[in-house]
Write a structure and sequence with these properties.
With 476 residues, this protein is an alpha/beta fold. Helices cover 43% and strands 20% of the residues. It has 17 helices and 17 strands. Strands 3-5-2-1-8-10-11-9 form an eight-stranded mixed beta sheet, with helices on both faces. Bound molecules: aspartic acid (ASP) and magnesium ion.
Length: 476
């Protein structure tokens, strides 16, 4: 293992010329004493803007496209003028124009076809990260830290699942050594685009929304880095969302498994897939705030010396609970479930929670509200006959729900914890609709009425002593 440090800067950390300056300073400082490579997101809001432009294109809304394209150019041109010394402004404006024009060409193609092929979307949307990488690399170089923007489609090799690709690590390792290592050897700081990659035969892909964290961990694993620092706009991984729980605290250390569970269940600080590539090599990760770099942040490690109960509670609104129920006991419930899950998988939808324990073969699962439409379409197609003939009751959907998940390695083999969590929720008169706990006992996930979510989260946080209150208790 080398001394290599990978830093990842999220959208708000490169969201303006001022933020790019602050982030570049953090990278340059570290690069003074060890090799550093950085991975950047698009400037905040740009990925949404690009995706919105392509939706306008598909709908034939020329005016919408034009407005977005003007906005895209303006944000990056402004940042360029604010950041760079006079001599570099014109050449970099020209490079910005090349990237913007390339995006525009792809969007125009979509407008002609009235279609947004996933493959073209992936190629086009990478413009956001390519633009931010260009600006950050130019600024670093101008400030005396030689840097080079690297398009991750020359580094991260993935499968061909456009919009949600997975890395092929062996191939990625080879490419990373070929493209990144020579830069490091020459003392040049690579500024790598997050979010995107390419198949082995060179077709551009992306890793899914928020995927730049995942990009950074893929690069860290591929180059066998010593550490990964993920810079965001919050102080680290918290015991609960501070907007719901004012006495939530930043956790000093969490395990890979805990961080992944928290991210999966709604903690926005990290993409849930981030930790997977690092676990083998036990590469430690720091989650830090680029707006307050002096704060220690959270360290994410393979294991903790002492695991203590439930450590944090994550929560999600914007979810929907889908229930499937056979109308007749003659229907084989397991087969229905198998076909339903297959249909959901084909729609590329993530199930957040799944629960079944009924003689009738009734089962329910939770999906993101944004993924409800494709979920229902795919289910209705797969189960059309049973639904038409009344063997299955109509699929039920409840959007008025929220989910909370209590997470901690230390919950394993601890009797009484589930009872305390449910007692705390019921004390608040919040009704529990569905429950799931996997046999690894890392997470207890609970679906409640949306109205009750906030109270339930606060109750669980207090009952399990996750926040400041526990510190006070243990001092007395
Ligand atoms: N820019 C991409 C997104 O907004 C990736 C990222 O920010 O991590 O989803
Ligand atoms: Mg992001």
């Amino acid at each position: 293992m080398s001394d290599l440090l990978i830093m990842k800067f999220g959208g708000t950390s490169v969201g303006s010329a001022e933020r790019m300056r602050a982030s570049a300073r953090l990278a340059a400082e570290a690069a003074g004493s060890r090799p550093v490579a950085i991975v950047v997101s698009a400037m905040s809001g740009i990925t949404d803007l690009l995706l919105g432009t392509m939706r306008h294109a598909e709908a034939g809304d020329r005016a919408g496209m034009e407005a977005n394209l003007a906005n895209l150019r303006r944000r990056h041109q402004e940042a360029c003028r604010e950041l760079l010394p006079a001599a570099r402004i014109e050449p970099v404006l020209a490079e910005i124009e090349t990237l913007a024009a390339e995006f525009e060409r792809l969007a125009n193609g979509m407008a002609l076809l009235n279609e947004r092929p996933p493959r073209s979307v992936d190629e086009a949307v990478a413009a956001g990260e390519r633009l931010s990488a260009l600006l950050v690399a130019e600024y670093l170089s101008a400030q005396g830290t030689p840097a080079e923007a690297v398009n991750a489609w020359d580094v991260v090799v993935t499968d061909a699942v456009f919009g949600n690709a997975s890395p092929l690590m062996e191939a990625t390792r080879a490419k990373a050594l070929q493209r990144i290592q020579p830069l490091l050897d020459r003392g040049v700081l690579p500024v790598i685009t997050g979010f995107n990659g390419a198949t082995a035969d060179g077709r551009p892909t992306t890793l899914g929304r928020g995927g730049s964290d995942f990009s950074a961990s893929i690069v860290a694993a591929a180059l066998d880095a010593a550490e990964l620092w993920i810079w965001t706009d919050v102080d680290g991984i918290m015991s609960a969302d501070p907007r719901l729980v004012p006495d939530g605290v930043v956790l000093a250390e969490v395990t890979y498994a805990e961080a992944a569970e928290l991210a999966y269940h709604g903690a926005k600080v990290l993409h849930p897939k981030t930790l997977a590539p690092l676990a083998d090599r036990r590469i430690p990760v720091w989650s830090k705030n680029s707006f307050a770099p002096e704060k220690p942040g959270t360290k994410i490690v393979a294991s903790l010396r002492e695991a203590t109960g439930a450590r944090a509670v994550a929560s999600m609104t914007n979810v929907a609970l889908v229930t499937i129920e056979p109308a007749s006991i003659e229907l084989n419930g397991v087969q229905v479930m198998a076909r339903a899950l297959d249909a959901i998988a084909r729609a590329n939808v993530e199930i957040l929670l799944l629960s079944s324990s009924s003689f009738r073969g009734n089962f329910c699962f939770l999906v993101r509200a944004a993924e409800l439409e494709p979920t229902l379409q795919s289910l209705e197609q797969a189960l059309a006959l049973e639904l038409a003939h009344g063997y299955l009751n109509p699929i039920k959907v409840d959007r008025n729900v929220g989910m909370l998940a209590a997470v901690g390695e230390g919950m394993q083999g601890k009797p009484g914890l589930a009872s305390r969590i449910f007692t705390a929720i019921s004390r608040e008169r919040v009704n529990v609709i569905a429950i799931a706990q996997g046999s690894n006992e890392l997470t207890i996930a609970v679906v409640v009425n949306r109205d009750g979510l906030e109270k339930a989260v606060q109750a669980v946080h207090a009952e399990c002593g996750m926040g400041a209150s526990r510190r006070k208790d243990s001092q007395t």
